[in-house]
Specification:
This protein is α+β, with helices and mostly antiparallel strands. It contains 4 helices and 6 strands; from the N terminus they run H-E-E-E-E-H-E-E-H-H.
């Protein structure tokens, strides 16, 4: 899994913001709700993100993927460099993490993010 590509992908989702928390963690959020976290320093060695409840156990049964520290109760996983997770599958999981968090936002905030996103793509 290419962690730098994962960061670029997270930045591409509509309404995504990023900030540094807890010292050196790069946090990707939508509507001020986190959907992915990785190290700010390069090269990143792991990334954590929200997973679907149904996939949490399946993912954490795989080598190199563990329940994310401090966030496992919210069904977050941590993928490290040893995981046999291809870039395409990683992209799908990150996109789904974004979608899960986006779906929990208020309808009003969802519409605002979507309208800003459409406005940016029209430029």
């Amino acid at each position: 899994m290419d962690f730098e590509a994962a960061k670029r992908l997270c930045r591409s989702f509509p309404g995504t913001t990023e900030d540094i928390k807890w010292g050196d963690d790069l946090v990707f959020s939508v509507g001020e709700k986190m959907f992915a976290v990785t190290a700010n320093s390069a090269p990143a060695q792991a990334i954590s993100f929200k997973a679907e409840d149904e996939r949490f156990l399946e993912l954490t049964d795989r080598s190199g993927i563990i329940p994310a520290p401090y966030l496992a109760r919210a069904k977050w996983v941590q993928v490290d460099a040893s995981a046999s997770l291809g870039d395409e599958e990683a992209a799908q999981l990150l996109r789904r993490a974004y979608e899960l968090v986006f779906a929990k936002l208020t309808k009003k905030l969802q519409r605002e993010i979507e309208s800003r996103s459409q406005g940016n793509s029209a430029s």
